[in-house]
Amino acid sequence: MPDRCLAEWLTLLEARHPSEIDLGLDRVSAVWSELVARRQQQNNPLKLGTVITVAGTNGKGSTIASMQAILLQQGYRVGATTSPHFIDYNERISVQGEPVSDALIVSAFEEIELARQAISPEPVSLTYFEFGTLAALLVFADANLDAVLLEVGLGGRLDAINIIDADVAVVTSIALDHQAWLGDTRELIAVEKLGIARPGRPLLIGEADSPKGFDQMITATGAEALQIGGDFSIELQDDQFAATLLSADGQPRLFEHLPVAGLLPINKTLAIQALLCAGFDLTDSGVAAALAELCLPGRQQQLDFKGIKVIVDVAHNPAAAIALAHSLTPIKGRYIAVASVLSDKDWSGIVEPLGNIINHWQIAEISDTERATKGQTLLEVLYNAGHSATLHEQVDGGLEKAFLTALDQATADDTLVVFGSFYTVSTVLMLKQELKRKFEKYN
Predict the structure, then answer these.
(1) Phi and psi for 250 in degrees, rounded to 5?
(2) Regarding beta strands 168-171 and 224-227, do their DSSP bridges make them parallel or antiparallel, or are they unpaired?
(3) Which residue(s) pair with 312 in the sheet?
(4) In this structure, are 261 and 306 located in the same domain?
(5) What are the tens digits of pLDDT across the range 42-72?
(6) Beta bridge partners of 3
(7) Are residues 33 and 77 in the same domain?
(8) pLDDT tens, residue by residue, 263-294
(9) Total number of domains constituting the chain
(10) Domain contains 48
(11) Do residue 251 and residue 308 come from a single domain?
(12) Nearest-5° angle of CA 200, CA 203, CA 207?
């Protein structure tokens, strides 16, 4: 097998499998079983520690970030996998809160490749995401971790993450998204999300507005379910909130003076409750301290570009757009949007809650994937809804040109809001990184 650097591996994986998304566990399970068997033969068994899996339409990354911050503050060793990444692939696999090295990922890829080829004369085909999921699990198994936090990439039941029987499962929210793969009703999507649950093990539900028949769906999993508003709850208190939770032995546990700012209180609450269910020993002061300092890239993250305030948020479905709209309080100047979405997203539903807040839209078609919504489609939706918008063609720089134009036209009283996709947000975060490098070079 030729030596490849990480960039070469990623290029290979992107081109190798015919579908970017190919739900199903048969292929990835077969390779994982081979990896487990090979490690057993080497007397080096794969051990992951306590595993918490997080699914949901929105809030997955925030819940995992909250759990990671709390565990690190309390002195536990923790690994986490999230997706997609903003700038570097390594962001997807972290140990002790830091992205792992290229060398660790390449070593894992090489081990997976050997297992993939050993199963049959025709090597098992894996998607880019499936390869990355297996790599994360191998890295975690070698890192002597107390906790492993796994973010489900798409759905739950048929997602590659679901090859692992989690000790605790979390479903953050259930809304319409990825309908082409998960179904076009909240009921169908709920079934997919609940697929991460395991009989007799804790299942946390953060969705307060349950779809029809949800209780019966939960019962069918056989899991020990805890639901927001019933088994655990939140009380908002201006800029703080309190969470009434349950410890692993079923006794009530009250956490007070938790920060409202930053990530949503529901996701912070789910994080604490999940860790309690998993049996981790948490101090009240430690939890509050961890959450007080917590921020997550791309989640209502505030940046400054040459004196202009910029908010970046990966909101890419109507439910997330509503949450973003609620966070945009009245300002002296204008809100200028820089936005784009993938073709499986409800662009009209995303625009609707923000329509009365955004004064002008700078839009462009995403260039890094074939799944992008056409620029003309983006423009037509805005035009038909009566909104002011400018479309930037890919030949003119696309999303980068859209952002730089918005920045050039903004005053100190204005705020730019960048959203719609990880691709959209990553464009701005990379520009910020480039500006930082230039500043450091000449100062």
Answers:
(1) 85, 5
(2) unpaired
(3) 301, 418
(4) no
(5) 999 999 999 999 999 889 999 999 999 999 9
(6) none
(7) yes
(8) 889 999 999 999 999 999 999 999 999 999 88
(9) 2
(10) yes
(11) no
(12) 155
